[in-house]
Amino acid sequence: MANLYLTHKCNRACPFCFARKVLKDGGGNVDELLTVEEIKTLLSHFSGQFHEIGLLGGEPFLYPYFGEVLALLWQQNISPKIFTSATNPVPEKLKDLDITKYPVKFVVNTATRDSYSEEKYENLTAFLSKFHAVASLSYTLFDLDADTSFLFDIIDRFQLLSRSIRVGVALPIYKGGNQYIDKKDYPGLGKFFVNFAKMAYKRNVILGMDCGFVACMFTPTEIGTLQACGVRFSFTCGAVIDIGPKLKAWNCFPLFQLHSENVLESKNMNELVRKFNKTMDAYFNSQTGIFPQCVDCKYFKRRVCQGGCKSLKSV
Ligand code: SF4
Ligand code: SF4
């Protein structure tokens, strides 16, 4: 799967936002877009290679041609997976959507209750009331004093079919530019995540891990607790492939400025992913992982842990 970065526009202003350098690269022009024509060119160049495409930003609900892009994907039997905060009004195209005929998934990027104005919260509740069957939640760990019980409350209140939360870590943009959790705080982060998983389990919710977690942020006992709470382990760092304006592709938001290239220079998505893996290895091959001890680490040797977020090596 690849993600289409549709627009820089966003109404949230999260302190850990990974996408800032993409806007800077576009000359700070918040109106710059991935155009519908560019998306058509992309789909024709990689014809038949996508079954699912992520739509993100910024905030995809603020993309003016959102309906056209959805129609284009459905026409080609590609399922859209939309990453949204759902704090804006539901776009016209989605208002009367029959989800039994038009496959769609939403990943709703959430935060704590106090971060929502009343208007944003009303938009979120209207959205979840309508799309509770195809929406799941995601949450980024940043404030280790945060009260995450709000997430379980909305899963219950709106009876989301997916009782799982995709959890990410606030990671640095290459060479800095956003707020993130420093690696010296990883043991504390591990403890926070274990408590989060325990609370989730009590509420019949399972946590999943996005990229950037490392095995050594947990003690062996904590790993056992996570296992008992049904957490799906993953200590990875790999190419995600986001594609933005002018069909420029990058490995992942934090590494945007390290390397990007036009997608049309690759024959297929596998070739593009291979190129990014090779380029990233070339940049980072002198350092195995984010800690000096990664070199001799049993988790690294067994390929259980990939050594943390590469971007942490640059800050
Ligand atoms: S560098 Fe790796 S861990 Fe960090 S965001 Fe990119 S893919 Fe994820
Ligand atoms: S590879 Fe590095 S980051 Fe991963 S568990 Fe080992 S020491 Fe920690």
Topology diagram in text:
Elements: E1 2-7, H1 20-25, H2 36-45, E2 52-57, H3 66-75, E3 79-84, H4 92-95, E4 105-110, H5 118-131, E5 135-141, H6 149-157, E6 164-169, H7 186-202, E7 206-209, H8 220-228, E8 242-244, E9 248-250, E10 260-262, H9 269-284, H10 298-301
Parallel strand pairs: 1-2, 1-8, 2-3, 3-4, 4-5, 5-6, 6-7
Antiparallel strand pairs: 8-9, 9-10
Helix pairs in contact: 7-8
Q: Which ligands does the model contain, each kind named once?
A: iron/sulfur cluster
Based on the structure given, which CATH architecture is correct? Alpha-Beta Barrel
Give the integer mean of the pLDDT values: 94
> How does the helix and strand content classify structurally?
alpha/beta
| Cross-sheet strand order for the largest sheet | 7-6-5-4-3-2-1-8-9-10
